[in-house]
Amino acid sequence: MSAYDRPAIDAKTLRPRTRLVHGGVLRSPFGETSEALFLTQGFVYNSAEVAEGRFTGEDEGFQYSRFGNPTVAMFEERVALLEGAEAARATATGMAAVTGALMGQVKAGDHIVASSALFGSCLYIVQDLLPRFGVESTLVDGFDLTQWKAALRPNTKTAFLESPTNPGLGVLDIAAIAEIVHSVGATLVVDNVFATPMLQRPLELGADCVVYSATKHIDGQGRCLGGVILGSQVFIETHVHNFLRQTGPAMSPFNAWVLLKGLETLPLRVAQQQANAEKVADFLAGEKNIVRVYYPGRKDHPQHELAQRQMKGGSTMVAFDVAGGKAEAFRMANAFEVIKISNNLGDAKSLVTHPATTTHQRLSEEARAAAGIGPGMLRLSVGLEDVEDLIDDLRRGLAAV
User: How many Å apart are CA 399 and CA 287, to the nearest integer?
Assistant: First the structure.
């Protein structure tokens, strides 16, 4: 008998915040309170017959940490419980999750459709990397449903979008786009980083797959990298599992352990960050040197009604255009004291970046303009500081403009 032989909790019967504390726990015989960190490369077997069974799939135990690891498995199960997904696979980074979710579905001769409003590295995967291997790609204005319909072909295998978009916080109609791509038998992959699973559930809206950079809100404290792919059991087993197993973008067990601890506080952090973001957006909207504020929770956002339908909040992110372009945006950012300059997001610390010269700098000027990324745009990831200190810091920045 083990030292911990109480019956396990059925986490599916619990509410989301409780799932994030108790879900996916796999205790060792020592009965530890905190999740165990299984920092191991491989596993030993009681016999050669057991080893054979592991590799044929007849025995469900672990084989090698590139294929699966107990700590990583706990993280995968907990995220799946939160998202309402049947299965999940963790990856080393968010971009590994995007790459795995897309490349695992396609082969030479296939076609992918994606919204043009994407993070720079995601655009690289769609525009540059996949075509090198014979996969054609088409970029569309993701807000225009007619363009999605027109772009589909008989060989279209999948579609990809972000919502809200990075950095302009545009909101795409996930349910409508899912219905369109499903009409030709294609799948829909959604990058849900800006909304987090606390504010939007793409699978419930018809998406087939959701990807996250766990580096962002899931960790939320600037400590480690990670990513995760979620979907149905069939989707994960058919398109994702073997691709990740053979190509090797595995999550470190240590990072999985850190991310498990981050999940415990995710609802509290996102709720406070969102509350702060709403107040920051309202403050900026009243300032004369701010040309425009982009925040889905405000009524002046072009997709506000859609955001109200498919999101539970306006995001922890705020974007805004500073009058005077790049020079004045730089002056504002350089004057901040509390808000730090960084291209990361979703952190407990408030972070600001200038997308045109950082996250989206590899895009042409024309492509940035088409995506609504002007020289005066700043993207602000709102943290957990007292919102009055953030507003004081924004005033300090505005005084420098």
Answer: 11
Last residue of a domain, one of 261, 290, 312: 261
| CATH code for the domain of 363 | 3.90.1150.10
32: phi then psi, degrees, rounded to nearest 5: -65, 150
pTM for the complete prediction? 0.96
Q: Is 313:196 a contact under the CB 8 Å cutoff?
A: no
Q: Are 139 and 115 in contact (CB under 8 A)?
A: yes
Residue 89's CATH number: 3.40.640.10
Interval 88-140: pLDDT, tens: 999 999 999 999 999 999 999 999 999 999 998 999 999 999 999 999 999 99
Residue 137: CB atoms within 10 A of its CB come to 21
Alpha-carbon gap, residue 4 to 127, rounded angstroms: 52
Give the span between the Cα atoms of 190 and 235, in whole angstroms: 14
| Token pair recorded at residue 389 | 């200190």
Q: Measuring CA to CA, which residue among 167, 263, 162 is closest to residue 217?
A: 263
